[in-house]
Design a protein that fits this description.
The chain is α+β, with helices and mostly antiparallel strands. It has six helices and eleven strands. The strands form four sheets. A four-stranded antiparallel beta sheet has the order 3-4-5-11. It has a three-stranded antiparallel beta sheet with strand order 7-8-9. About 30% of the residues are buried.
């Protein structure tokens, strides 16, 4: 098993004031630690790689998840409405998958119909695509540079799957990252995504 060396720094505080050199001392030393087996036995794709039906834009080593953006062809809409007539809709700011399930079941939602059609067609070989929730756009915006040429977002507004009120929903302007809410009958784009665990990715190989 490979080992890696890591530098650790400790600040020794609350030393007596008469210690020469002041009241703080930093001690740095090396330790050796084993690299987990899965790091080599179960490799992960690189950011920007084609993976799991789309493009990998983000890896979370906190939640052990991969964020996949759908291909533009079939996974990005033209400008369409969130819903008309308006409805309260799903309000989760973090769970786009649950929000999208509600939108797909709502007959008056054009974005819900687009997502349902993509999943019915098994876009990229998968049927669990969803419209990002409001907070998921924070990551999508900051990682958009990982999309390859031809797969970039348009410099326009994109709907999230999160309603902000009974008449409005959240959107993000992907050219600047500006986020706000708009009436649900406005026409903005959507871009679908997937979120899967490392284990789900390895199981699919």
């Amino acid at each position: 098993m490979d080992t890696g060396k890591y530098l650790l720094s400790y600040d020794l505080l609350d030393l007596p004031v008469n210690v020469p050199g002041g009241a703080q001392l930093t001690v740095t030393y090396e330790i050796e630690t084993a690299v987990p087996d899965w790091a080599t036995d179960f490799p992960l794709p690189e950011l920007g790689d084609a993976a799991a039906g789309g493009t990998l834009v983000h890896l979370s080593f906190k939640n052990y998840t991969l964020m996949i953006v759908a291909p533009k062809s079939g996974g990005e809409s033209t400008a369409i409405n969130w819903s008309y007539p308006y409805f309260g809709g799903p309000s989760s700011e973090t769970d786009g998958a649950a929000n999208t399930t509600t939108l797909e079941a709502h007959a008056d939602s054009e974005i819900g119909a687009f997502s349902a059609a993509a999943n019915a067609a098994s876009l990229g070989g998968y049927d669990d695509w969803f419209i990002p929730a409001k907070d998921q756009f924070n990551t999508l915006y900051t990682t958009k540079a990982n999309l390859p040429v031809g797969e970039e977002y348009e410099e326009e507004e994109y709907w999230s799957s999160t309603a902000s009120s009974s008449m409005k929903a959240y959107y993000t302007r992907m050219s600047t990252g500006y986020a706000s809410s708009a009436y649900q009958d406005y026409d903005y784009r959507i871009r679908l995504m997937r979120l899967l665990t490392f284990q789900e990715y390895w199981d699919s190989l």
